[in-house]
From TrEMBL:
It holds the Pfam family Tetraspanin. Keywords: Disulfide bond, Glycoprotein, Membrane, Transmembrane, Transmembrane helix. It is found in: Membrane. GO terms for cellular component: plasma membrane. It is a multi-pass membrane protein. Belongs to the tetraspanin (TM4SF) family. The gene is Tspan18_2. It comes from Chaetorhynchus papuensis. This is Tetraspanin. PROSITE patterns: TM4_1 (PS00421). The chain crosses the membrane at residues 12-36, 56-77, 84-108.
Length: 204
């Protein structure tokens, strides 16, 4: 009976750590994508020191969880005391890291709100000015993810038009629905979108 119980615990520990391993791999992949993403999402991250630090923390946590899951799986299956010792040391480190992250999130909570990102967008966004890295990056992100600003098209109403484009509408082209969500994708109805017809705009 004792042997069956220990065997059950071993396989449960293996299963638990296998999910940690998969979660760490996903987080690691997401961190790498945010940092090297060619569509320009990295430019928004790089423009904000807090987001930039957060991306590398996510990368480090993903790598740590990946290693933790691997050690836990191997230690459980092989019943290796050395691997299990490293496993529990990693759990302690992750607990301390999470505690630190919670403290930092509390201290900088005002920089992680919708209001903060909306203010940054209104301050730096220059609509269809592709020579501006911030604007070009926002346009790429909005086109790729079929979204519009932080809260919706209303975010752009207070943003001034470019000096050489006084006839430009309040809604930027990047907020218009496309048949294919890429810069090369054809607009569903560009004129109606720019005129404010909601069904042709990305509202999320």
């Amino acid at each position: 009976m004792e042997g069956d119980c220990l065997s059950c615990m071993k396989y449960l520990m293996f299963l638990f750590n296998f999910f940690i391993f998969l979660g760490g791999a996903c987080l690691l992949g997401l961190g790498i994508w945010v940092i090297v993403d060619p569509t320009g999402f990295r430019e928004i991250v790089a423009a904000n020191p807090l987001l930039f630090t957060g991306a590398y923390i996510m990368l480090a946590m993903g790598a740590m969880l990946f290693l933790l899951g691997f050690l836990g799986c191997c230690g459980a299956i092989r019943e290796n005391k050395c691997l299990l010792l490293f496993f529990f040391m990693f759990i302690l480190l992750i607990f301390l890291a999470e505690l630190s992250a919670a403290i930092l999130a509390f201290i900088f909570r005002e920089n992680l709100t919708r209001e903060f990102f909306t203010k940054e967008l209104k301050k730096h966004y220059q609509r269809n000015n592709d020579t501006d890295v911030f604007s070009s990056t926002w346009n790429s992100v909005m086109i790729t993810f079929a979204c519009c600003g932080v809260n919706g098209p209303e975010d752009f109403e207070a943003i001034p038009h470019l000096p050489y484009s006084s006839s430009e509408k309040a809604t930027p082209e990047a907020c218009c629905q496309r048949e294919l969500q890429s810069r090369e994708g054809m607009f569903v109805n560009k004129e109606a979108c720019l005129s404010g017809v909601e069904r042709f705009q990305n509202r999320q």
